[in-house]
Amino acid sequence: MQEQTVRKRFIMVASIVTFILLLDQGLKIWVKTHLTYGEEFPLFGWSWISIHFVENNGMAFGFALQGVYGKLLLSTFRIIAVSFLLFFVHRLVVEKANILVLISFSLILSGALGNILDSAFYGIIFSESYYHGDVAEAFPENGGYSGFLRGKVVDMLHIPYFKPVFNIADVAITLGVIFIIFSYKQFFQLEDNQADEQKEVRGNFEG
Q1: Segment 98-147, tens digit of pLDDT
Q2: Is the model's pTM score more than 0.85?
Q3: Would you say 51 and 43 are in contact if contact means Cβ atoms under 8 Å apart?
Q4: Which residues are catalytically annotated?
Q5: How many whole angstroms separate alpha carbon 82 and alpha carbon 179?
Q6: What are the start-end ranges of the H helices in the chain?
């Protein structure tokens, strides 16, 4: 029964991450190959949100570290952070953490992975995007606009009166953090339970 529970939780995590990645990357690739840089139009005709194509070299919501070394440093940090997240989510699954806590970290993991894919591969896969120019081409004959880990993150979601342009990966990370805030009691309850179990094991050993 315990193995089935762990397997179901792994499937849930994999499903969340896969769904977010497909949604995030699908929209990014469409925007990159169909819109010129800076092009904008209302999303589904709504006035409160629009598609506005921009790219950035850095973090969520358009914040960036400047220069080639800043970009490489950020990409390396992302890889380390995702590696830690993978380990931590695995631990949450095995130790049967609260479902909301597990969903929260799955969203953060999927968002981090989504932006890492841009940084790692988009510079190799796509040509440059320009204002009022041709749309980017996938796998151009002369090669991409940059090298490995030096690609730009594609952003496209824009809400009036909110300056940063963001993407689905950013939304997933934000939702994950919000869910953690609302489920912090369950999260710390998991830590307390682990501490109690360790005390019990030490007590039995010493006894």
Answers
A1: 888 899 999 999 999 999 999 999 999 999 999 988 899 999 999 999 98
A2: no
A3: yes
A4: 155, 170
A5: 19
A6: 2-34, 67-94, 99-117, 123-125, 168-182, 184-206
